[in-house]
Amino acid sequence: MTKSQLSLNLGLPDPDPLNKYVLSEFSADAVTDETERINLENKYKKILKITSNQSRRSVSFQLNKNRGVFGWFKYREGFSPDLVEAYLSDMSINQGDLVMDPFMGSGTTALVAAKMGYDSIGFDMLPTSEIAIKAKGGLMDYDLYEIRNMTEWVKHLEVPSSYDGSVNYVKITYSAYPDKTDRELAYLQSLISPNSTEFSDQAINLLMLATLNSLEDLSYTRKDGQYLRWDERSKKVQEADAQRASKGKNPIKNRLNKGDLPDAFQKISEELSIIVADIESAQAVPSEVISSSTHFVNNTVLEELPKVKADSVSAVVTSPPYLNRYDYTRTYALELAFLGYSEADFRRVRQQLLSSTVENKSKRDKLKDYYAQNDMLDKFEYIINKLDNDPVLQEINKAMAIRSEIGDLNNKGVVQMVQGYFEELGFVIAELYRSLKSGAKVVIVNDNVRYGGEVIPVDFISMHLAEVFGFVPDVVQTIEQQKGNSSQQMKKFGRVPLRKSITVWHK
Ligand SMILES: C[S@@+](CC[C@H](N)C(=O)[O-])C[C@H]1O[C@@H](n2cnc3c(N)ncnc32)[C@H](O)[C@@H]1O
Fold first, then answer.
1. For atom 7 of ligand 1, which residue has the closest CA?
2. Whose CA is nearest to atom 20 of ligand 1?
3. Ligand 1, residues 77, 298, 341: which to mutate, most atoms within 8 A of Cβ?
4. Pair (208, 251) in one structural domain
5. Is any atom of ligand 1 closer than 6 Å to the C-beta of 79?
6. How many angstroms separate the alpha carbon of residue 284 from the centre of ligand 1?
7. Ligand 1 mean position to 106 CA, how many Å?
8. Ligand 1 atom 26: residue of nearest CA
9. Of 191, 298, 342, 477, which cross-links 502 as Cys (Cβ 3.0–4.6 Å)?
10. Residue 1 lies inside a defined structural domain of this protein
11. What is the pLDDT of residues 260-319, one digit of tens each?
12. What are the backbone dihedrals phi and psi of residue 391, each rounded to the nearest 5 degrees, phi first?
């Protein structure tokens, strides 16, 4: 009897706590080949470290609440400034060096970098990132007198009776606000295009942020995982119910009632007041001056990263979208529609986001065209050949194809999503390698996932791809509390805990 069997038999704790985090089976009922995943698990187990539950909160947005400027944009997908600060402090980088976040989101990395005296660069497809990053970056420059005046101005706005505008909407945001709120929001928006009021563009941008932050509370919707849930008082639910009734069907189930909804101008001025208080306290402490430069581009990383100068970046701290079917254009539908996005804009952004929904199509041809147009076809061929011939990706793609064929995936789009995700991540990693200085580190937060009974160890696969393109692995820090599975997966294939990890590599 081996030592570990003995301790199990005696009910003693497993002598190697890492065993809880490492799998020996990836394919439920051994339906597909799992050799490559097992090899990766054995290889990277040596650099796997468990990190405390406190860090679990730091990989989510929770710690940003009540954190002054870091909480200005309600962005659930953000990680905490503590995480960024901890990793950047641990690296040997100097004032004025360039820190990158290729998936900027609410701009946490950029803001921490600025506080520490580093310049930063990053990208995001969402226009909300641009507004949030601009607003936060100006923390020390706001004219408090102006912002206070603007707050009072919003609070006392009244919509003229002759005004009959309404907020831009797309199908998924139809009837999102009570009529009165819709009219108020549209009226406010009509007043605040840049150069149209007595307020500076910087102040107007802040007002836009406060308005975006208010939309969910003002609406008949609630963000709930991948979708918006709807209030039963909305026309959307009522019209759908009427249609169902005419066909003899029961009313829609998953509805809610949000109770009294706030007044729009009151709510937005309250949001602004919180921001004003943060500006007051930040400006009262001159040592907090943010003086570094932040360069943000509102475009896809797949087009912007290839433009970054070779050997110019000293550190990367980032979290890409997870491979979790999460669609940012649905979660942030109210915000995008408010900013004037049409159905076509929604489709364009959804397709340009890193493939993480079942609606994503392959970006391979577009990437090839882009590299060809920019005289980098050789580079494209180099990257795509590495990816196409990679045994780990071949195993994952084949496993997904088999699970689809035997009906284990509840949506066939998962096959293309998984393939596209790692293909696009591969391009990002290859271009990161080119952009980084020698010795520079990359820190990436990500979650492992499971589809159709197949575990996809995203953390180790990313580490593997990093090695394929030249990086050297440092450590995989995995959060003590692992992720569960969806109820569908549990019922059909049993439970397998999934790692939530921070991987670190260097050039
Ligand atoms: C997990 S979030 C990053 C959150 C960020 N670390 C923070 O603290 O706010 C991932 C971000 O990647 C962005 N994204 C997805 N696909 C992209 C692409 N192709 N190019 C640029 N950004 C993209 C999403 O819009 C989202 O904001």
1. 78
2. 300
3. 77
4. yes
5. yes
6. 32
7. 8
8. 105
9. 477
10. yes
11. 999 999 999 999 999 999 999 888 876 655 567 899 999 999 999 999 999 999 999 999
12. -65, -30
**What is the per-residue pLDDT across 460-473, written as a single tens digit (0 to 9) for each?**
999 999 999 999 99
Map residue 395 onto helix, strand or coil: helix
What's the CA gap between 439 and 97, in Å, rounded? 13
**CATH number of the domain to which 102 belongs:** 3.40.50
Residue 172 C-alpha to ligand 1 middle, in angstroms?
Answer: 21
pLDDT of residue 122: 97
Is 410 touching ligand 1 by the criterion CB < 6 Å? no
- Rounded CA-CA distance 491/200 in Å is 56
Q: Is residue 213 part of a domain?
A: yes
If pLDDT is split at 50, 70 and 90, which confidence band does 488 have?
Answer: confident
| 348 assigned to some structural domain | no
* 497 shares a domain with 369: yes
Residue 171: HSE in the Cβ half-sphere, 13 Å Cα cutoff: 6
Domain hosting 34: range is 1-50+320-325+358-438+447-507
Are 335 and 342 within 8 A, CB to CB? no
Amino acid letter, residue 398: K
d(CA 463, CA 110): 24
The least confident of 65-69, 290-294, 356-360 is 65-69
pTM equals 0.93
**174 C-alpha to ligand 1 centroid (Å):** 26
Of 283, 307, 334, the position where a domain reaches its end is 283
Please tell me the distance from the alpha carbon of residue 266 to that of residue 255, in angstroms, as a whole number: 26
Is the beta carbon of 482 within 6 A of some atom in ligand 1?
A: no
